[in-house]
Amino acid sequence: MPSSALSESIHKPGSRQELSVRISGLSHWYGKGSNRRQVLQGVDLEIAAGEVVLLTGPSGCGKTTLLTLIGALRQVQQGDVRVFGQQLQGARRGQRQRLRRRIGMIFQGHNLLRCLTAEQNVQMGADLLPGFSYRGRRDQAREWLRAVGLDDELGKLPHDLSGGQKQRVAIARALAARPKLLLADEPTAALDSATGREVVELLKRLAREQSCSVLMVTHDPRILDVADRLVRMEDGRLFQAIE
Amino acid sequence: MSGGFWSSRGIPLASLMLIRQPVRLAVALAGISFAGILMFMQLGFRDGLFDASVTVHRLFDADIVLISPRSTSSVSMAGFPKRRLVQTMALPEVEGITPVNWNLLLWRNPETRGTRSILALGFEPGDPLFTDPTLSPKAKKLTQKGRVLFDEKSRPEFGPVAEWFREGRVVESEIAGKRVRVAGLIGLGTSFGADGNLLTSSETFLELLPNTPPGSIEVGLIRLKADADPALAVERLKTLLPDDVSVLTKQGFIDFEQNYWKTGTSIGFIFTLGAAMGFVVGCVIVYQVLYSDVSDHLPEYATLMAMGYRLNTLLGVVVREGLLLALFGYLPAYAAGQGLYLLVRNATQLPVAMDFSRAFTVFTMILIMCMASAGLAMRRLVDADPAEIF
Fold first, then answer.
1. Range of the domain at B294
2. I need a labelling partner for A43 at 20 to 30 A (CA). Which of A200, A215, B112, B334 fits?
3. Which residue out of A115, A116, A135 would a mutagenesis test of the B interface target, given it has the greatest number of B Cβ atoms within 10 Å?
4. For position A4, what pLDDT does the model report?
5. Are residues B167 and B199 in the same domain?
6. For residues A77-112, b (16+ Cβ closer than 10 Å) or e, as one string?
7. ipTM surpasses 0.95
8. Residue B261 domain-assigned (yes or no)
9. Is this prediction's pTM over 0.80?
10. Searching chain A, which residue's CA lies closest to the CA of residue B9?
11. Do B10 and A116 touch (CB under 8 A)?
12. Residue B310's closest chain A neighbor by CA?
């Protein structure tokens, strides 16, 4: 699906079923009592299926908090968060865990399992898919590693891979679970600019092939052009960036 | 969850986590094995000592045993009238009887001239005493006065009696100040109460212990006809005989002796406590290892939770780690236990051996140890907050 058509559809009424994420009036606080601090203030955000959205902003403005709330990693305190149409406000632990299976996550650090090889790490993602044999899931893991250009490094431990290679394994792992929404938190932070660019483009291409929406937090001005849409966050408020 | 670890084959995360940290794994296995060995040794000693207390008791050719109610153990056997044993012949199921004198006497080491307490059994050389059929030809030599059969498994402190006898020398010594000659060797084994044993005829026995009233014996062996029920016969004998004798089955006689050592001394408590300490040491080590393992991998566990793995799946990984540690820590402990038992057997002549029930007990203890530690270490896992890894 062409992305331009999708971004137009966001503003059309009656297109809610096309939305991966729909947030309205989301507020969040940290701490208790006098230490209570508001990090999100009435955030509204919609992400269409297959759309790539980049979220920028100064550090500490609440970007990561927003990501963890969408990723069902945190309990929603106030407001409306729907992912794939499921209300996360008041969702139980089991419900959030099941929802997380459909959301891919890529972290600032690669967060690979140190004791597993590249192939096994990716297979941990593929293992979340129901209905495949062990061999089938392993083959998928290999295909994903091929897709990120690491078919020669299958048996290597994260320890023996370069930073860019590790981040590519992490992408393969996230996509191996065939998510329809990918959340990435500064995936290029630990990489040099050329590698960072390469990784982000790979991420975008693979996500598009899977018609997977992407919400990526980044500070890196050099990769802003991969986005279908830019949003900017400041002091817990979201602004549509002017392109 | 069909994608989880349980319903279908997945990555063997537990074993990989252990294997990829070989030093920690080695420490864990060494700790568990050490705890296992400790338990094997302590329980082995305990059971061995209890077993050893009935080395001679087991050998008797008897279905029913009469003893004096005043007897408390093999080291303090009291006498009872021999005619009580003869009375039992009135019962149709009784096939034969053997009166036995039983006492600890002072044996003089023929080499060093030092004396030491030895268990002496006196019986009529023609009567069956032990189930071992090789005894009766040797027993004939006891018909001559002043002859004894010496237990070659006696402790070496009694002198090189067996060696000298095998060399063909005439081995003579003193018992209770009376001269005796070794007429043959038998193999019985040492026990708790006795470091050595010897057999002699009733006649010689009475001469060595002139204070023993004639017609008084310490043990009466009764053999029943093949089709008789020992428990029933014991009941009938109890009604037949007055209260001045106790009627026991052979197993009852063995239990009587073991019971004395179990309840009348602190041996059982000491060795059980030793085994318990091994268990506690093992618990501490395994817990330490599993806890630091979980702590080290906490971000990785959190990542898996963020990916949508269930907490139960991750708890399962810790449980598997505990199981693997239990299994692979137990095997070397078992092997070392076998070796040490052999060592102890050779050094002490105590009947310490691996038996299934002890092997199983120790494995169960190790399993409990690992599972309890895994259970405690798991609490750390609950701290794995997937929201923290961003």
1. 13-53+266-389
2. A200
3. A115
4. 41
5. yes
6. eebebbbbeeebeebeeeebbbbbbbbbbbbbbbbb
7. no
8. no
9. no
10. A134
11. no
12. A97
